[in-house]
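Why this split exists: single-chain examples teach little about how molecules sit against one another. For that reason, every record in the complexes split bundles all components of an assembly together and asks for one structure covering all of them. Below is a record exactly as it appears in the raw files.
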Amino acid sequence: MLRLDALTKTYKTGDQALKAVTVDVPPGQVIALIGPSGAGKSTLIRCINRLVEPTSGSVMLEDINLTSLKPGALRRERRRMGMIFQEYALVERLTVMENVLSGRLGYVGFWRSVTRRFPQKDVDEAFRLLDRVGLLHMADKRADQLSGGQRQRVGICRALIQDPALLLVDEPTASLDPKTSRQIMRLICELCAERGLAAIINIHDVALAQMFVARVIGLRFGEVVYDGGPDGLTPDKLTEIYGEEDWEATIEKVDDDADTTIEAAE
Amino acid sequence: MSAAAPALGDMLGTRWRRPPMIQRVWLRYALLVGLAAYLVAAIASVEVDWGRVYQGLDRGAAFVMAFAQPDFVSRADAIWAGMVESIVITVASSVVGILISIPIALGAARNIAPVPVYMICRGIIAVSRALQEIIVAILLVAIFGFGPLAGFLTLSFATIGFLSKLLAEDIESMDRSQAEAVRATGARWSQWIDYGVKPQVIPRLIGLSMYRIDINFRESAILGLVGAGGIGATLNTAFDRYEYDTAAAILIIIIGIVMALEYLSGVIRARVQ
């Protein structure tokens, strides 16, 4: 469904963030992307919807090459890729409803959006999504009045109301407590399963990734160094991805209290 | 760790001071001595004619005493007309200036505008800020003649430089991720500005606008001195006729209005946060 072919990004400073990354994502598959800070995880996700322009290589969404699209066509394709952000990235001075409905901006005209008169179908869908994540009563609150976990759930609604085929998820749990982190990951994975969405989830927390996803990709210095099931992440593999460290605790604790965050091991 | 890593044993017991801002010792002291010398020379160069100051004290005293008995009545018509003109100039120039400065601010924000647009908008701002209001007013009075039209145009022009620059700086320092999230939904440029940028800068825009209305009112009192209309013209006439009591009345009204605007802008800014 999504295919990255030799995707490369070199920043103006000369840093090579991605080195010919090739990944195939079948429909409905949820992938966790792990790796130390600076490995290129965020860059990879942003190269897919071209918030960051890739230097070379191609991104195929079904049979459309995203890397060669002109601005208008790119906007249309962006509607099919919902994005969920680290630190939520809600527009803080807008209400929860406005934030959710902003996911429809690619579908409605300027005057409808500027006057906040969205089609009733969109408004109903926004109510339905907010109800699904348990925030219907917060619809008219301002986004900055919400707690971290609530904000991220609004962020999820904003991505889903786009009616996407693919979710790009950038560190969804980075600023949440362990319990909320699990709830958010569970929610994302459940929603993907309900709607048959594929997803790429950047995540620091290896144990959390192992709990929820079927496939893990390990990135190091912009290269794929691991691609396989969550069980294949042996201490050797983790050392290859992150560098030398004692990994036994991280892996063993997966089943009970696996909320240890693995920050970049320098 | 680099090769020159200091050993802990050598550092224990040594004094610690914040590293000085200017590293070179001679430069640091040269700057201090130079500053002191300049200060002495500058003060010495101001010529004060104490005899003239003594004579002027009487006039100054008469002026200050006039405040004790301001005369609002005998020139009430002129004061009223001047006030209305000043307020009209203030409101009109603020509205027009703010409306024009919003698109220019968008163009002058590096994170939004492409380089050519950025250069043009920054150029407009630089020109507007380089020319002091009085100079612009003199020029415009020469072109459009005496009266409030020159004052209105002057203040509109000055508002553009002020508001565009500060608003552009606020746009440049906005939270990128909020704007990025809106862009990722497939929003077009106008929607992106409306949902991703506007909510972040609107409190600042309102605060700056209130402040600028305040400035424009004060400026409109000055511009009358060069013939650009408003209460300043009335004030100038009062001074010319040595009617210090009327002048005092005008100044008191100006102070009152500026204080009221100041209070109002404080209330509004607190409400929009």
